[in-house]
């Protein structure tokens, strides 16, 4: 199993008595730790798709899943916002995320600095970075707001265990 001895013992205390030494635990196979008759009684969950993706729902058609470009795969996407550029009606999608609460074996998912996505005329996703704006935080919510008399657009980011961050949109 992926989980180490200490993690499994916290969930299944019986394993402490069965495997007193780490060496014995390391030599045990899956069937030793979890006999097939016990596994049959439990729930089995399978995952076979791990890309950050979007669901496209077009009127009158079946919803389809589209993987985002590789630039959007560095970290879990936890927040997104939709913005329009001044010179066109094209939508721009800002995505960000990061997650630092994993166990030590998994490590932190903190490679994301935020990205801007847009659909090209060919229907494919294009990705770009935010010039001069790295966002290395665990962002959980994004809201577009307007500031001042000129109603300048800005992004307000809610950061996990941190202060709100405000970024101007040009």
Folded structure, characterized:
There is one protein chain. By secondary structure, the chain is of the alpha+beta class. The protein is built from five helices and nine strands, in the order αααααβββββββββ.
Q: Mind sketching the topology for me?
A:
Elements: H1 5-11, H2 14-18, H3 22-27, H4 30-33, H5 36-41, E1 53-56, E2 64-67, E3 77-84, E4 91-97, E5 115-119, E6 125-128, E7 139-147, E8 152-159, E9 165-168
Antiparallel strand pairs: 1-2, 3-4, 4-5, 5-6, 7-8, 8-9
Describe the structure using short key phrases.
alpha+beta, four-stranded antiparallel beta sheet, 170 residues, 9 strands, three-stranded antiparallel beta sheet
- Cα end-to-end separation: 49 Å
Number of strands: 9
Helix/sheet category: alpha+beta
Q: What is the chains' assembly state?
A: single chain
Fraction of residues in H or I helices: 10-25%
What general form does the structure show? elongated
Spans where pLDDT lies below 50 across 5 or more residues: none
User: N-to-C SSE series?
Assistant: HHHHHEEEEEEEEE
Percentage of residues in DSSP E strands: 25-35%
Which strand order does the major sheet show?
Answer: 3-4-5-6
Alpha-carbon Rg, integer:
22 Å
Mean pLDDT value: 89
What's the tally of helices? 5
The major β-sheet equals: 4 strands, antiparallel
């Amino acid at each position: 199993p992926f989980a180490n001895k200490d993690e499994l013992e916290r969930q299944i205390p019986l394993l402490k008595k069965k495997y007193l030494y780490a060496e014995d635990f390391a030599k045990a196979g899956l069937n030793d730790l979890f006999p097939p008759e016990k596994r049959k009684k439990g729930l089995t969950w399978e995952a076979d798709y791990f890309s950050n993706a979007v669901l496209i729902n077009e009127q009158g058609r079946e919803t389809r899943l589209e993987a985002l470009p590789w630039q959007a795969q560095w970290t879990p996407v936890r927040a997104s916002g939709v913005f329009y550029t001044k010179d066109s009606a094209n939508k721009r999608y800002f995505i960000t995320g990061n997650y630092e609460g994993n166990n030590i074996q998994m490590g932190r998912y903190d490679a994301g600095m935020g990205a801007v996505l847009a659909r090209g005329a060919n229907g494919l996703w294009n990705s770009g970075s935010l010039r001069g704006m790295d966002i290395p935080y665990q962002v959980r919510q994004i809201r577009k707001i307007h500031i001042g008399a000129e109603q300048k657009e800005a992004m307000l980011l809610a950061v996990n265990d941190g202060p709100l961050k405000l970024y101007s949109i040009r």
